[in-house]
Amino acid sequence: MSNQFSYSAIHTFTVVTQTLSFSRAAATLHITPSAVSHQMKLLEAHIGVPLFKRQAKGVGLTDAGHALMHSANKGISLIQIGVANSIAAASQRSLHIAAIPSLAQNWLIPRLSHFYKVHPDINVIVHAQDQLVDFSTAPIDAHLHFGDGYAQQAYAQFLADEYIYPVCHPQLLLQKSNADIQHLIASHALLQYDAAVEDAPSNVSWQMWLKKLNITTSQPMQHRHFSHVTLALEAAKHQQGLALAWHHIVDNDIKRETLVRCHTQSLKLDYGYYLVSPEQPEPHSDLAVFTTWVREQFQHMKANEEAST
After folding, report:
1. Nearest to 276 by CA among 297, 286, 293, 291
2. pLDDT band of 201, cuts 50, 70, 90
């Protein structure tokens, strides 16, 4: 028995099993009955067993024919689904965008509804990635990255600066008759994002923030540490302490009042947000469209804040 089977023969076989007639199958397939008969004879020869019982009117299936029918119908159906999915995938334009996880979760994804509204034909596939993507090995179109803007053998477009300030759950402010920052840090744990290697030079710890603002306390401070900004903010939402929040990442929580600022002073980080790509996007390309949109989102956020102050 040969392991090489003709797709055309298997497809024809499935049509014959539905009609139990070579002539009706031929009409369905727009070929001649003799062509159907020839394909079925070749298929039987390849398999080495009879599949049909020739009858006065049409054909019937042997036990072997019944056994093949179920698998063949399933196989043809899967192939047709695969072809349809392949065509759909080819017709849909996709962008693979990496982003630092906290910004992806709290800033990018909430805004993608707007992107799809204005660009419904472009699908954005988001990849959570802290370290700058190696475009030579990863199938990523661009990386929404936090850094100094230096990207060897890549093109980096500046998007926005980042600022930090302390936040906490609103209930913590209500629990204290004196809710100034000195009393708060003396009474609650300080939730600290421990920066990764790439953004460590720009990160500001609680000790650094307090020193820059000349804030002192006689009480020992309790620190809790987290690998991502979002995790520190999540702990703050559960009233576990005060977090140093990154403005773009905490903005939605501030608007929803799930977190509140507990000091008015902001500090600008040395690094900022960049969209990094292997090369400068071609004009009117999907990446250029996404670049313009993401830049506008940062600009709109800044303009709205300036208008409200």
Report:
1. 291
2. confident
Residue 278 pLDDT more than 70? yes
- Tokens read off for 193: 């994002």
The pLDDT of residue 63: 93
Q: What span, in angstroms and rounded, lies between the C-alpha atoms of 98 and 159?
A: 15
Q: What is the reported pTM?
A: 0.69
| β partners of residue 123 | 94
Asked whether residue 177 falls in the same domain as residue 212, the answer is: yes
Residue 30 predicted with pLDDT over 80: yes
Identify whether 2 is part of a domain: no
Q: How far apart are CA 58 and CA 38, in angstroms?
A: 15
CA-wise closest residue to 59 among 98, 94, 33: 33
Is residue 225 classed as helix, strand or coil in its secondary structure? strand
Expressed as residue numbers, the domain containing 41 is: 7-91
Contact criterion met (CB below 8 Å) for 118 and 243: no
pLDDT at 3: 66
The one-letter code for the residue type at 185 is I
Q: How confident is residue 217, by pLDDT bands cut at 50, 70 and 90?
A: confident
Cβ-count burial 258-291 (b if 16+ within 10 Å, e if not): ebbbbbeeeeebebbbbbbbbeebeeeebbebbb
Domain count, the chain: 2
Same domain? For 78 and 166 the reply is: no
